[in-house]
Amino acid sequence: MEKDYLIKKWLNNELTPTEMEAFEQSEDFALHQSIIDEAQHFKASQFVKAPTFDALASKLHAPQQEKSSTNSAWMRYAVGLVATVLVIFGLYIFLDNGDNSFETTIAQTETLTLPDASQVILNAKSALSFNSKTWDKERTVQLDGEAFFDVEKGSQFKVKTEQGTVTVLGTEFNVRQRETTFEVTCYEGKVAVTYNEESLTLLPGESMALRNAQLSRYKTENVTPAWRNAMSTFKDAPASEVFTELERQYPVHLTFNDVNKSVPFTGSFKHGNLTEALDAITQPLELEYDIKSAYEVVISKRAQ
């Protein structure tokens, strides 16, 4: 009777410190506590929400109505608790379709490890998704933005974007897909690129850029993309593309006065220092800037 009395008060959070100490010394305490712990530490997929678990959590700490038989009350409670956990686990297995999505914000980069241990580093304002359940059959990711890939050797690995697809077996490469620009650089191994029903192959140190359906190819001596070292670099890119990238790396809004944003720009700017970045962009383009506030910058044609 004493044991049933302590169980009832424990479930209702009514034990005194002395009673709690006595209850923890009982033979069945470990069993009772493990059931509660398993329920409270159950974690479903980040893509599946189970509202019934919140209700269960509150039930664990809510006062229980008095029963005529404390032993039968405990048995019903334990059976119900286990059944609820099993139902939630079943829903998790049933509803989890394997979809995984990741997204970065302004000035943020993120390193991801894929199911085959391949690594991806997302640049600012980029999104990547893949399906973990079909990964063994098809190593494919969907990219919107820019990312560096270090791919483990194995079956074909594909990076799909709106403007083209990159296919490799195991290598290091960078993919950049922004608005009307699709750019790929190979740093190791061999990369196959398909776009607009055309295809080409890149070897280490080779790059391709597709801007407004116009293809250009060039070589690079870099061993990794500059943005991994807090720099953004451009080769014959329209000024509009450079200014848009600046807004991805800094939390500012740019406005323009009499600026030709179609002028090509070759150069780079640093991340982490807005003034230096603005100088690096505006001086070669013969522009000037005015920082109105921490979040607003006006770009103008330089006065003659």
UniProtKB/TrEMBL annotation:
InterPro entries: FecR, FecR_C, Ferrdict_sens_TM. Residues 103-191 form the FecR protein domain. It comes from the Bacteria. The chain crosses the membrane at residues 74-95. One of its GO terms (molecular function) is sigma factor antagonist activity. This is DUF4974 domain-containing protein. Residues 233-292 form the Protein FecR C-terminal domain. It comes from Dokdonia sinensis. The keyword Transcription regulation does not apply.
